[in-house]
Amino acid sequence: MFAKNVGNTDRMIRAVVGVVLLILAFSSLGGALAWIAGIIGVVMLGTAALGTCPPYAMLGINTCKTKN
Question: For the whole model, what pTM was predicted?
Answer without folding.
Answer: 0.82
